[in-house]
Amino acid sequence: MTGTERGRGRRIVLWRHGQTAWNLERRFQGSTDIELTETGVAQARRAARLLAALNPDAIIASDLRRAAATAAELAALTGLEVTHDPALRETYAGQWQGLTHDEIMARFGDQYAAWKRGEPVRRGGGELETEVADRAAPFVLAMADKLPDDGTLVVVSHGGTIRTTIGRLIGLDPHTWESLGGLTNCCWSVLGEGARGWRLLEHNAGTLPEPVLGDDD
Q1: DSSP string, 90-128
Q2: Active site residue: 17, 73, 129, 193, which one?
Q3: What is the 3-state secondary structure (H, E, C) of 22-59?
Q4: CA-to-CA distance for 113 and 97, rounded, in angstroms?
Q5: Predicted confidence band of residue 85 (pLDDT cuts 50, 70, 90)
Q6: pLDDT tens across 146-191, in order?
Q7: Exposed (0-12), middle (13-18) or buried (19+): which is 65, by Cβ within 10 Å?
Q8: What global pTM score does this model have?
Q9: Contact of 64 with 35, CB cutoff 8 Å
Q10: Catalytic: 84?
């Protein structure tokens, strides 16, 4: 198969930031700028050692501290500079931000249920998921377009933003984006480029991706 037939062979690794205190408390962070815990820093250092083995060509990250600090661990190992951009921030969720899961259920239960059903909901009066994809996905694609053939881009962002970006890039209907599931702190998903565009190769992984061998290759 030639390079033209399979696409340029680029790869996008979408890496969620490490643990924060609000993660432990099950507080909705959204665009609130929360730092990593000591455990979160350790998670980032461990994951960075694995991801450095992919020899990434570029690193981009949300400018929120939890993502920037996570990206810095990979930058220290690879020598790459990190491009920070607010396009990769987590979903702004208005009145939900800072609330625990139980508080959200008590105050915004109907809104939460509608969101889980896949309806377009401005959680807490904030952004729609499609609006998050509208800002994040084009930025990721623009940076991926700068890669060499078979190059790798690492995107350090947030769980909701990563899910919506994946959904947009692989062509899923927004109603189904929630079916991708969440990302654990400092785990990642991998998109690979083929003849028919981007496809999901790994999701919520904590180890390096392995080639798919056999009937589904």
Answers
A1: PPP-GGGTT-BHHHHHHHHHHHHHHHHTT----GGG---
A2: 17
A3: HHHCCECCCCCCCCECHHHHHHHHHHHHHHHCCCCCEE
A4: 17
A5: very high
A6: 999 999 999 999 999 999 999 999 999 999 998 898 899 999 999 9
A7: middle
A8: 0.91
A9: no
A10: no
**Banded pLDDT at 195 (limits 50, 70, 90):** confident
Distance CA 207, CA 217 (A): 20
Distance (Å, whole) CA 211 – CA 58 = 22
Single out the residue of 127, 187, 129 nearest to residue 157, CA to CA. 187
Contact (Cβ atoms closer than 8 angstroms) between residue 72 and residue 188: no
**CA-to-CA distance for 13 and 187, rounded, in angstroms?**
10
Active-site pick, 5, 73, 84, 90:
90
- For residue 159, give the 3-state DSSP assignment: helix
Where does 145-217 have alpha helices with state H? 159-169
List the one residue out of 57, 42, 43 whose CA is nearest residue 149: 57
pLDDT band for 215, please (50, 70, 90 cuts).
Answer: low
Is there a catalytic annotation at residue 17?
Answer: yes
State how far the Cα of 36 lies from the Cα of 178, in Å rounded to an integer: 25
Distances (CA, A) of 103 to 28, 122, 151, 160: 10, 17, 44, 19
Residue 127 in contact with residue 92, Cβ under 8 Å?
A: yes
Total count of residues recorded for the chain: 217
